[in-house]
C-alpha cells in the first residue's frame, strides 16, 4: 500500500489542525507542513495581551496546554507531521501534483509531491495607500514579529502617543493593550462607529467605555497621511485636516485573504476574493483543499459567501480539510453565523448572527429589541449588560443577538449562538430552560428577558424605540413628553436633563391628571432599564393614551451625555 | 365591562410573576395576591449567600434592581397588584369561585371571589422521620426565617461543628456557606454520591474539591438519629452506628410540592405528587392555573412528568399562568430539560438535559464522553473544567451535558442547554460557530471539543472509557498496561502510581518495541487530559494493537488518590 502524501501550506491555525487531523485519521499518511514564518501554531489572537504585557512569556503563545513549544521537533514526535518552518511555497503545479518551495534563510529551493494538498495561507493586514506608511513606527499587528515589535515599542515609549487606524476588533483590542502598556491612545475609525459587527446603539456604549478608560476615539474620519521626520513617525493627518502628534501608528483596518498562490495555480476564487471551496473545503481542484483565513465561507443565515477570518473557524475548517484529504469527503463545514467577541477594557462586546443592519442589507424584515439589566442578581455583585436581539418578523426566528457591558456577556452570546444554530424562535427562547443560580445568571436569564421584550413587541403589547431613534425624534424637533418613571432618588443621581417629567411608576396611576389632556400626545416612557418604562406604557394605554413609546434599555442604554 | 378578578395564592417567585404579568396584560383586571409568609418576592436562591455573610443586608434579598423593597406598597403602586402578606389561604371553593383566607397574626378570616385562580404554593423541605428532628439547632434552609436563623447560629457558633443531611444542590451550597461562616462542616449523603443531577465521575470531582476546601463529605450512609441534650443538638448518629458531634444540623434532603390546598379542592395531582397542569399551566379545573414548585412539569427529553422546583422555571411558569388567566390560553410552557448549576466553593457544577444514568433509566441507548481541558488558553490564566456529554446512539442527538471545575462552567452549560433545546446533534455542535477570544474561551470551545471526542467515539476512531470504568477493571483484577504518554517532567510532578509505564507521545512511534509483543494485550493510554492519550491510541492501533482504550479526561478526571 502506497503512503498517501498530504502537503499542507501554512502553519498557524488551520494548517496545523488539518495536518494533525489527517495524520490521526491515517497514521500511514506522510504529512508535510510548510510554513513561511519562523514559528508554528502561534496563538495569534493572544497578541494584544502579549503586547499589553499580561502575557509575560513569548513561548506561552507557542505552547501546548502541557507547556511544550510546538516546534518542528514537537510536530515530528507528537503529531507525526514533518513541519518545515521558514519555508515558503512559491508555486503549485497542479498537473504535476507538486509544490515548489524555497527556504527563506538560505534561498535553497525544491519540489514536494502531493496526493492531496491543503492550502492554509491565511490573511494579511490591509495597508491603506497613504503617504508615510513606510515610516518607522508604523506597524500592523498580524504576525508574532509584529507583536514583538509593538511590545518593545510600547515599553520604550511609556507615556508616548499612539494612533490606531481602525476601530474594529483588533483595533480596539490593541487600543486596550497599548493603554495598559502606558501609552496615550487615539483610535481613528473612518466609519461612523467602532466595532462594525455591532449595531450603533451598542457600539456607542463600548466607545463611551473606552473613552472613560482614557482612550480617545474619533469616528467618521479617515487618515489622509502619516507624518514623519527623519524616517520616523511624528503624527497623522486626518482627512479633515486635523493633525494628531504620535510616535506610533498601528494599522488595523482589516485583513485580506492570501490567495496569490491559489490564484496563480488557477484555482477558483469567490466573489469576496477568498478561495472558493465546497462544503467539504475542497477547491475547484479535486485534489486541493483550503481552510482558514484564505477561504470564503457561507453565511448560514443569508446563504451568501463571506470572509470570516477568525481563529475558531480556521480550526474547524482545518479539521474538515484534514479529514477529507485522507478519508474522502466525509466531513462537512456548514458555514458561519458570524459569532465573535472581544474584550475592550472592562467591557466585553460580543455578537452572533446578523446585526439589524446586515439583516436589512440582506433584505430581511426584522423586529429588534434592546434590553439592559444586571448580569446576575444585585445581591451577588451584579454588573450591567445591554443586548440587542434581531428577529425575523415573518417567522419569529432569531437571526441575531449582540451584547456589551461590564457583566457576563460571554455566556449570553455563547448561548444565543447555539439558539441561532438551532433555529430557535423568540417563543422558544422565551421559555428556555437554562442553568440558574445567583452566582451565574438572573432567575430569568438576560437573553430570555430580551426574548420576552421582543415577544411583547411582536405581539403589539410593547411599542419600543431605541435611544438612538428617540434622539433622532428630539433632534428633528419633535417634542414628545419624556416620562421618567423612576424614583426621586434615582432621578437625583442621574437623569437625561432634556426637560423630562418625573412620575414614579408607583404613583403613575394616581397622577394621570398631570399628563397631557390630549390622549394622542406623544409620550416616551423610560426608567433605568425600561422594565418600569414598559409597565408605564401599559398603564398609559389602559388610560387611553395611544402614542406612547418605551425607550428601550432606558438610561442604561442611552449613549449620549446625561446630567449628573 | 366587568373587571376580571384574578387571585394568586403564593408570593415568592411564580406567584408575583403571574400577578404582575396578568396586570400588565389587563390593566383593568383586579389582581390580588395572598402570601402566607411575612415577605414577598424573596430571592430564595440567595439564602446560602446570606447565611455565609457575603450578602450583607437582608433587604437585598427583597429588593428590585433599583433598590426598592418589594412590599405590599410596592406591589400596589408599581404593579397595581393588591398583595396581602401574612395571609394564608385555607380552602378553595371551586363551585363558589372563592378562596377562604386567614390572617396569621390576628386570626381574622374572610373570603375572596375569583374569576381565575392561580396556585403558586411552592414546596416545603422534606424532613426525615428520625428521632431528634425537633431539637433546637435542627433546621432547614427553605424560608427567609430559616436563613435568618441559620445566619445567626453560624455567627454564634464560630468554630463549631455542623452536619448537613443531604448532599444535593442546597446541601452543598449550605456546606460552602457554613464553612465560609467559620464552621467545621460535614455533609452526610445517603446515596453513593453527592449532587444527584451529575453522573458519578463528575460528582466525585466536586466532592474532592469540597474536601480540599476543608469540608468532610460522607456518602452512602444515612442518618439514623439526631442526638441531643437539654433540647439542643449534640450530634448525629449515622446508620452505621458512627456518631458525629455537632451543634447544628441542616436538613437538606429535598423538597416536596405544597399540594394540600389543591388536593382538598379536588384538583388532579400527577404521578410525581405535584399538581397536574396542561401545557398552559391550567389545572383540571379550567378556572384554576398553577405554577412553580407545586406543579409537576414535563421533561422535554423523556416526555415523562417530573418535579422541577427551580426558581427560574417558577418564573417562566408564572409568566405563562399569569398571561393565560387574563388572555385565555395564549401562552405555553414547553417543559423542562433539567438545567441547573450550583457553586461549591471555587467549583461550579452544572448540568443540562439527561445524565447518563437518567438516560439509561429512560431506556435510551446512549454514548458518552468525558473531556478535560482549560476553560481558556493557558496564556490567559486558564482554570480547568471537566465535562461529560450524553448522546443518543441511534441519532447522534445530544441529550445531556454536564460540566464541573474551577473554570467557566457557566458558559459551557448555558450554551449546551440551548443546543439541547435546539435538538442539535453531535455533528452540529462539532462545527458550531461560537464567540471566541482568548479571555472568553478556547479557540475550539470546550463543548465543541467534547463533541469532537464523542464524535470520534461514535465513528469508532476513539475507544474511550471513563476513569471509573478503568478503576473497575483494575479492581476486578484485570492488569492492562497503563500507558502514560505525558512528558517526564509532568510525570515527576504527579502520576497515578499504579505501576504505569511512561512513554511520552513524542517518542511512542520509536519506542513501540518496549510495548507488549502480544498485539491483543490490553492497554489503557492517557495523559493529563487524554488528548495525547487519544493520539497514542491512534498510533498504537496503526501498529496493530487491537485492545487499546483511552482513559477519558486523563489524570484531570481521575477522582481517586494519585501519587505526589
Automatic annotation (TrEMBL), chains A, B:
The keyword Nucleus does not apply. The keyword Flavoprotein applies. Keywords: FAD, Flavoprotein, Oxidoreductase, Redox-active center. InterPro entries: FAD-bd_OxRdtase, FAD/NAD-bd_sf, FAD/NAD-binding_dom, FAD/NAD-linked_Rdtase_dimer_sf, Pyr_nucl-diS_OxRdtase_dimer, Rhodanese-like_dom, Rhodanese-like_dom_sf. Residues 476-564 form the Rhodanese domain. CDD domains: RHOD (cd00158). Its cofactor is FAD. Gene3D superfamilies: FAD/NAD(P)-binding domain, Rhodanese-like domain. Belongs to the class-III pyridine nucleotide-disulfide oxidoreductase family. This is Pyridine nucleotide-disulfide oxidoreductase.
